[in-house]
Amino acid sequence: MPRSHRVAVLGGGSFGTVIANLIAVNGHRVALWGRNAGRVDLINNLRENSEYLPGYQLDDRLRATTSLVDAVSDTDSVLVAVPSASFRQIVRDVAPLVASQTCLVSLTKGIEPGGFRLMSEILREELPDNPRAVLSGPNLATEIAAGQVTGTVVASDSDALNRSLHDLLHSERFLVYASRDMFGVELGGALKNVYAILAGLGAALSFGENTVGMLLTRALAEMSRFAVCLGANPLTFLGLAGVGDLFVTCSSPLSRNYRIGFAVGKGEPLDAVLDAMDQVAEGINTLALLKAEADRRGVHMPLVNGLYGILYEQRPVTEIFSAMMSREQAHDVEFAVGDFHLTHSTRREG
Which residues face 10 on adjacent strands? Predict the structure, then answer.
């Protein structure tokens, strides 16, 4: 008989809600934590998160709560789906409330402001004794809620933990794949948000299909170039968490980051675009952090530099686009697999 898990999902936005419900539909008890008391009451009374996923029926095994203590009490898995800016504080609040064997899983695709810490690193720093994992992939919440077949990647240092998370989440329409490259999977999810803004800009400027194809492949080269410098496996970027997520986020108006780029490309001020959004678009914060880290490490990232010039230095969009697309290095494929082990041995140093 399959094991029944006791799970908490922290974050009542669209992705936290849909992941919590997938787990509940699989037969597990799930507590969905959120700060908004009104939304929590509506979820419990109407079985629907009408603000973020209207019409999406929630399983009776899912209950919502505003109490963090209540949510994580007596759980074996805690999945964190809050914005990167609040991730550390939430995890710090959870730390004294969970046992050392409780698994912590990041669903957040971002980088901590004020430094260059990924969510898995925050989990390691705040709960060093707990098993940890990350989940990432081309996972638009509205499509998952609509029952569209979706693939995702869970990554940890443990095959047993990956199998456990597979059993927790996997279904006929939500397919779960495993990876040991936690860092690469996480970097793929964080970095692609930057290029989704760029893709939205390109759409606003009516780029042709040839140009879009070049943009996506140059973005993938940049992502992997940077990630390998930090110790990720370049082959991770050929999978769901790399090119899969990049393609979806850069081609879908459902992506918040894509919508930002499109609006800016049509002449709307960035501040006004961000103020009008009901959920955090991680790509804006990631862009500034990524540029600073790439500059510090000497990583060649012309697309990142160009987008930074447009959004933060108010440089003309058309002028910068022409410049950034012509300053790429001469190599086409840059997956330097032979150098991976040397790079991996110096992970996070420098």
Answer: 33, 80
Q: How far apart are CA 1 and CA 202, in angstroms?
A: 51
Mean pLDDT of 294-302: 92
Work out the number of other CB atoms within 10 angstroms of the CB of residue 345: 9
User: Mean pLDDT, to the nearest integer, of 331-338?
Assistant: 56
Alpha carbons 318 and 279: distance in angstroms, whole number? 28
Residue corresponding to tokens 């690193």: 121
Q: What is the pLDDT of residues 87-123, one digit of tens each?
A: 999 999 999 999 999 999 999 999 998 879 999 999 9
Which of 185-194, 200-209, 266-275 reaches the highest mean pLDDT? 185-194
Whether 253 contacts 262, CB under 8 Å: yes
With 70 as the cut, is the pLDDT of residue 59 above it? yes
- Distance, CA of 37 to CA of 42 (rounded, Å): 9
Nearest 5°: CA angle at 117, between 238 and 302?
55
The pLDDT value given to residue 328:
55
How would you classify the pairing of strands 77-80 and 103-106? parallel
Q: Can you state the percent helix, strand and coil of the chain, rounding each to 5?
A: 55, 10, 35
Query: What is the pTM assigned to this prediction?
Result: 0.89
Annotated catalytic, 192? yes
- Catalytic choice (109, 192, 266, 291): 192
Pairing outcome for strands 111-112 and 117-118: antiparallel
CA nearest neighbour of 200 among 268, 260, 138: 260
- Nearest C-alpha neighbor of 154 from the set 137, 172, 134: 134
Closest CA to 56 of 146, 118, 173, 156: 146
Mean of pLDDT over the chain? 89
Q: How far is 343 from 337, CA to CA, in rounded Å?
A: 10
Q: Burial level of 181, CB count in 10 A (0-12/13-18/19+)?
A: buried
Classify each residue of 150-170 as buried b or exposed e, where b means 16 or more C-beta atoms within 10 Å of its C-beta: bbbbbbbeeeebbebbeebbb
Specify the higher pLDDT residue, 60 or 337: 60
